[in-house]
Amino acid sequence: MRVVTTAQSPADSVTLDVQPTPLALLLLGREADPRSERGVECPGDLPSPSDPDLVERARAAKERLGGKVFVLGHHYQRDEVIQFADVTGDSFKLARDAAARPDAEYIVFCGVHFMAESADILTTDDQKVVLPDLAAGCSMADMATAEQVAECWDVLTEAGVAEQVVPVSYMNSSADIKAFTGKHGGTICTSSNAKRALEWAYGQGEPGSTKVLFLPDQHLGRNTAVRDMGFSLDDCVVYNPHKPGGGLTAEQLRDARMILWRGHCSVHGRFSLESVEDVRARIPGVNVLVHPECKHEVVAAADYVGSTEHIIQTLEAAPAGSKWAIGTELNLVRRLANRFAAEDKEIVFLDKTVCFCSTMNRIDLPHLVWTLESLADGKLVNRIEVDRETEQFAKLALERMLALP
Hints:
- The protein is an alpha/beta fold.
- It has 15 helices and 16 strands.
- The strands form four sheets. A five-stranded mixed β-sheet has the order 4-3-5-6-16, sandwiched between helices. Strands 8-7-9-11-10 form a five-stranded parallel β-sheet, with helices on both faces. A four-stranded parallel β-sheet has the order 13-12-14-15, sandwiched between helices.
């Protein structure tokens, strides 16, 4: 069975040679992954997915709301949702877009929980951020809890290195983790500015003695340090929150330059070196372009590496007739394949198994319709609100990022 991209007509669709896995049911939001979803039921009667009027209902509700609503759509969202987004982008771009629209009373964030939290932190107190499905969490963000990170800091303190450590947290983290980062003198980073954030962090203390605690994605931290900054793999250690002392000795912590949290993206972590070798054998001359959340061996074997926005810009600039295998979320890859098919750019998915983000895919058209109609009727639903203290320190960390050169 192949996955065919959705398009205006069958003739316009592009077939991606991928095989569904047992997890494929997740991509319709009809099964639950207890490791990555919050398990929160939608408090209301959802429209039926088979309702033929869903598109018209969404359009009508959005028109009733007018300028009161601003809909954000992450690149990994389904096409059925993206069509109603006022802007699309990665998580940080969307949070900044929300902050740039202070006149919008409702910010409907079609993404996942941590993204909506970031939007709430950066928007005004009068604006209300709404997540259409509260079960849309993030497996990576959930791999680092406030309690675990506080315990890690105790371990670093006992090892005598905490004063040398600057935390750097990926944007894909909870508000609690961002607040911890701000409180301990650190900054936030995105996949596009991780190198600048690490350079800033290492400049905060004595040269050669400063260490970074990178949260929560070990792969982005390792790839940035080794690939972009010339570190060795031996400079990096992995802190496992499920082991006593993180599974590390005090000596290992003292010797390390990068202390990587044992977290990863469940989507990008699926790609393997075998995936790269297989696509090169199947498609001679293919360019392999992957996200830096992929494993180090995948990044090392790729031709190009970059953030979601970088992936899009690279394909926009690619010459006609070029061939590309993309290592990122499948909704985006198939959308790009459709977009550039007319330019004779061959774009395929890096792996041969389906790799949707199951939690991102929980935001579907029925949830969006229910949200917009509720707001249009004057009923506020699924508001995401960060408490004052958490917001204060999380915003401090975000502002340090915004001040990066």
